[in-house]
Design brief:
Layout: H1 2-7, E1 49-54, E2 64-69, E3 76-80, E4 90-95, E5 99-105, E6 112-119, E7 125-128, E8 136-144, E9 150-158, E10 163-168, E11 171-172, E12 183-188, E13 196-199, E14 205-209, E15 213-216, E16 222-229, E17 237-244, E18 250-253, E19 259-260, E20 266-271, E21 279-282, E22 294-297, E23 303-310, E24 317-326, E25 333-343, E26 346-367, E27 374-385, E28 389-394, E29 405-414, E30 419-421, E31 425-428, E32 437-441, E33 449-456, E34 459-467, E35 472-480, E36 483-490, E37 499-507, E38 510-518
Parallel strand pairs: 3-9, 19-24
Antiparallel strand pairs: 1-2, 1-4, 4-7, 5-6, 5-8, 8-9, 10-11, 10-12, 12-15, 13-14, 13-16, 16-17, 18-20, 20-22, 21-23, 23-24, 25-26, 26-27, 26-28, 26-29, 29-30, 29-31, 32-33, 33-36, 34-35, 34-37, 37-38
Amino acid sequence: MKNIYAFLSLFLLLFGSVTIGYGQKPTNPGGGSGGGGTPGGGNNCSGQFTISFPSNSATAVNGVETVDINNGSGDITSYYCPSLQSTASQVVVKPLTNTVFILYKGTGTDTVRVSKRYVPIDSTYTFGLPVNSTNTTYTLRSDINCNNPKTNFFTLTLAPTLSITATQDGRPVTGAVCPGTTVTLTAAGATAGETYFLRNSSGTLIDQNQTGVFDVNPTTSTIYSITTKTDNCGGADVVQRIIVNTNNLTLTSNDPDNNVAPGTAVILTAGGGTAGAYTWTASDGTPITSSGSQVTVYPRSSTQYTVSGNTTIGNCPASASLIITVNGVILPVEFASFTAIWAGKAPQLNWATASEKSSASFVVERSLDGHTFTAVGQRAGAGSTTTRSEYQFSDLSLSASTIGTVYYRLRQVNTDGSFSYSAIKTLQVPTSRSNFKATVFPNPSAQAVTVEVEALGAGTITCTVHNALGKQLLTRTVTASGVGLQEIRLPETASLRSGIYYLTVRQGQQQQVIKLSHN
């Protein structure tokens, strides 16, 4: 355990996420926050507590082991192959003495504090373990502030060989992506010949294969899990999880439960975008001309309001919706879900309703700019039902030359001709779909080079040159007027030193990387 004491040398820095360096065993940090009272108060200063944690031990029950800890019984360690069981992502403590517990993730200089909690005598507290995409070690420290301070360490290692990485256009995903962006998840570490199973946040199986490579199109921040069998977990299924965050707009109202009387003034507030650049729509057809981040509406009947625009962070096309219920009367159709993903060679829309009343049809509408929509398909409604109904539509009519972002919404039409709109969903056309092509000449060269690009339509084309270490040396942006050959001259390349460079040519979501040899 000497190494554990060394890893936790800076545990005196207990307030805020800290990085732990090497040093001597930490001293007692004293009281904590979060539960009231005084740590170590009362006559019971034994340092006893019960801890339940995920375990592969033979004494574990349903993957969970429970141990009674007493100061002086020594620090303990456990090894665990994470499973799909919900209890596999938590550690539960119940102290017999007022105790401060601190949870850390990682080892050595990579150690960070996850959470700190003062737990009163005979209370129970659950530490949720953060999402992991690779093997991980957790350390739970318990401190009793008595005349003779007591400290124990419990170490849990989640160490299957399974790991997951997320990339976009071949580059690691380091932050949030735009809603609907294609992100590639790559899993590795399965026993040879085993299958990888991909699930979403709700545990629904999305896909499975033996390559471990999956394309996902999250519209909101999503936790994905991949399950398989690994060599070091005794043939049992193991799971790792990874979060893909998205940049989204938000929409709130000033009414606590979004349930009002007819004609009541309701203030709607959008967030995450730029004031003055929002577009507002109402399902009852009432026009909203404001482009600001806040509008006041006076619904006479239950209405769904939608705000669309680009996010401030990432400049992502996005939308958010909110239903204002009038006198508790729900909309004729209650949407349970609506998603737009790229499936094979075309966009696929999936939606479900929790209930429908006099529902005649759903008209699928598409837009290339987020403002002007055109009907591209239709599905018959379920009439009147209180059970869940599911629908699917593939947009096979999308032009092969389309690049960038595509917008979709549903126009739900009732039997009396009235209609309302769903929220807007966005989709990024995959790079591999179009015949985007760029060439450069002369190559090799000792002078300036020219880039020829088969433009896929109107829009900007950006050329960026990086050296072999990934440092950006120059960039040039031009505007293409339409489909056809576009020449871009890069005179700055004449001054480059001899060596190998990489030219990235991008239009919309399409890009090509070309190796340059400069003499």
